[in-house]
Amino acid sequence: MYSVGFDNDKYLKMQSEKILERISMFENKLYLEFGGKLSDDYHAARVLPGYKPDIKVQLLKTLADKAEIVIVINASTIESSKSIGDSGISYEDDVLRLIDEFRNSHLYVGSVVISQYLGQPAADKFKDYLEGWGITVYVMRYIPETDYPNNIQFILSDRGYGNNDYIKTSRPLIVITAPGPGSGKMAACLSQLYHENKRGIKAGYAKFETFPIWNRPLKHMINLAYESATADLKDVNMIDPFHLEAYGVSAVNYNRDIEVFPILNAMFTRIWGKSPYRSPTDMGVNMVGHCILNDEICTEASKQEIIRRYFNTMLDFAKGNGKKSDVSKLELLMNNTGLLPYDRKPVTPALKKAEMTGGPCVAIELPDGTIITGKTSPLLGASSAALLNALKHLARIDDRVLLISPVVIEPIQKLKVGYLGNENPRLHTDEVLVALAMSTATNPTAELILEQLPKLKNSEAHSSVILSQVDFGVFRQLGINVTCEPLYQNKRLFHRKS
Q: Residues with Cβ < 8 Å from 79, sequence gap 6 or more?
């Protein structure tokens, strides 16, 4: 059964109070960097069962009249067409989605910032597209690694941050967010502090932080799960040396914040004459550790997240979208924590079923722990079969009952193969659900089956082969956490995304 390990309401109250306290520290304007995702933080929801993915948006809605949102996206992610693991969409598409979502929540989006800009054609194209919709876009230019973050004199000059666009804002609380990690949020905040200072404005900075959890051990599974989520960014959790020196207390932070802290300190010293922060941990507003109800539940959830990240990293590498170094980091993390791929419960049933049948198979672990499997057949793909079998189980319908008549399936197959040129006649999960919905007109059982769909949320699934993007997408929409073996069903070099 799905168990709660985190007190969402307590967190909302404590985090809100801390943010208001931080705002009161500064006179004119506060740049608040949101660590992790502002909207749809599914990583936090997975490792902290009970955490609501949209809690940050709910918090901001209480400050809607004071807050202005600035979204930052890295030019290199636009150029590489990198996709986001949780949603499977590109970073630039997620920027558009975020703008729509914030506007629907009555939150003001002031502008979009393209960071590490080097004149990339794809970044220019995206900038033109946004401006065509009336969205203000600014650019932050690339600072060479030879200068960033150690050459403070260069960074805090007209050739460094001074070479960036000044982001015009109109409200006292500027929320800096991004579609994913490594977008340049902190750099955007620091660049703005530099520009504001030149204009005589005493602006402040703070970080709305979630991970790593500063008051949990360095090697706590929740913090290690964060490392697994940022393997491609080379993030490493560390004991904050500045915090230890200042207070004699161990606090967990991560390498990029620790590296950039001297720059921030120098910035505040220039603006205020003295920095208000003595450590990177001081910069953060993070009450997560105070709201964990059951450490054991969150630890187990974090173990499962590490294994999921392992499979997803292997998948990215198999598709040519990842690096071998990322795989090596996840393998090392798995070894150091004593975790095995088979510790993910649906893995072994999926592989055993595939070995027995000689074809692709999918296993789904329902929230109550029941394992349901599905195999490839002439009519259905393995994902579709597993999905239907799981819905039958939830509806307490005999597995032998035919839900969708071949009379319904065959015309769909004819359309796919005969008219659309698809070599795979088997129905994907989206096609099965549409066929099931059509069947409700003549089959009351089909309607009962569809009513079970919400019960699949928080299920776990594993496939013996790489799934189509369609099946990945449907599983995600249903709230099913899905992984797969990093193997294609055939040895072709080209594979259709559908």
A: 120, 121, 122, 123
Task: Please name which of 428, 437, 438 lies closest in space to residue 472, comparing C-alpha atoms.
Answer: 428
Which whole-number Å values give the CA distances from 419 to 210, 412, 413, 422, 436, in the listed order? 50, 10, 10, 8, 22
* 468 DSSP 8-state letter: P
Contact between residue 188 and residue 176 where contact means Cβ atoms under 8 Å apart: yes
Positive or negative, the CA dihedral 278, 281, 283, 288 is: negative
Q: What is the pLDDT of residues 221-235, one digit of tens each?
A: 999 999 999 888 788
Q: With CA atoms as reference, report the closest residue to 177 among 189, 167, 169, 168.
A: 189
Rama region for 88: left / alpha / beta (φ>0; ψ in -120 to 50; rest): left
Q: CB under 8 Å, gap of 24 or more: what pairs does 486-489 form? A: 486/311, 486/314, 486/315, 486/317, 486/318, 487/318, 488/318, 489/360, 489/465
Take residue 456 and report the two structure tokens written for it. Answer: 């699949």
The candidate with the shortest Cα–Cα distance to 27, out of 221, 197, 265, is 197
Tens-digit pLDDT profile for residues 411-458: 888 887 777 777 777 888 998 898 888 888 888 888 899 999 999 999
Residue with tokens 């088997």, as numbered in its chain: 426
Which residues on neighbouring strands pair with residue 207, listed in sequence order? 33, 284
* Alpha carbon 38 to chain centroid, angstroms: 10
pTM listed for this prediction: 0.86
Longest dimension (CA), the chain: 78
**Residues in a beta bridge with 365:** 371, 460
Handedness of CA 295, 236, 150, 123 (dihedral sign): negative
**Of the candidates 498, 497, 452, the residue with the CA atom closest to the CA atom of residue 478:** 452
